[in-house]
Amino acid sequence: MTGERADGSRVRTVFLGSGGFGVPALRMLAGHPTVELVGVVTAPPRAAGRKAILTSTPIGEAATGLPVGPVLTPDRLRSPEAISDVLGLHPALVVLADYGQIVPLALLEPPHGALNLHPSLLPRHRGATPIPAAILAGDTETGVTLMLMDVGLDTGPIVVAERIDLDGTEVAPELEDRLASLGAGLLERALDPWIEGRLTPRPQADERATLTRQLRRADGRLDPSRSARELERQIRAYQPWPGSFLDTAHGRLVVWRASVRPGPPAAPGSFTDEGLGTADGLLALDEVQPGGGDRMSWSAYVRGRPAIVGSAVVPAG
């Protein structure tokens, strides 16, 4: 699968990605002397915003102006047409970062394999949402893993990994940016040793695996029967999607920032002049946004709607 290039030629490489996590890796590959990017595969443009403007993925936008060959946007990578289009680029290496679709076996078998840059310390947090999962779980460390892909979901052997400490204040978008930069550097350092056959993948410890899933809008609902610490983590983990919110007698309230602090006892789900009662104490609502309004402090929100104090969260459904 690997071996030194006898003629010193650049390795024909196809990059698969859609989300912003993969953008630094794509830019690095476009300028790497060992590889020749002969194509990029990303999700097709989607309608976005209230005006439903057709918008390219972050990878599609980043590929503009880079020497990356054609940008392919198949709806289904596993369709025969899509597989044929990718194989028609004759890749010797496939690199994937945050693509969002299962890669068919036919695309996992180029001479130098298919490498996946994944933003967790595998086997922990396999699947679609590893960055929110690490924050939500209160992990004290996370990182990026470069793995050799197989037909499973993030189950392939680990090539290299790099870890970072977490201090419990991370918000998902900022942590994604940090891991994206870390991952691009890790991939850059690993490319030559991998292509030259100097790195040996090691199997994952499947018994320690955890699995994440795609998030839904309903996941953003804050449940005051949980602990204040769990809810504070959720608020940091679920940005920008699905966000975190409470339904009140005054309408839906998005919570952007919160903190756990000592306070007078309050029934779970009841609002106080500082925030929200939970299963084990007070969740201070530091920054909120009413429907159709601007972000503001909780104290500013209460001044405009004093009747919120003493009322309760409106349950779902």
Structural overview:
The chain has a seven-stranded mixed sheet. By secondary structure, it is of the alpha/beta class. The model has no long low-confidence stretch (mean pLDDT 95). The protein has helices at residues 23-30, 58-63, 80-87, 130-136, 172-195, 228-237, 298-304; strands at 11-17, 35-41, 46-48, 53-55, 71-72, 93-97, 114-118, 126-127, 141-148, 158-165, 211-212, 245-248, 251-261, 275-277, 282-290. It folds into two domains: 11-212, Formyl transferase, N-terminal domain (Rossmann fold, 3-Layer(aba) Sandwich), CATH 3.40.50.170; 217-308, Methionyl-tRNA Fmet Formyltransferase, Chain A, domain 2 (Roll). Helix content is 22%, strand content 25%. It is built from seven helices and 15 strands. Helix 1 (23-30) packs parallel to helix 5 (172-195) and helix 4 packs antiparallel against helix 6 (228-237).
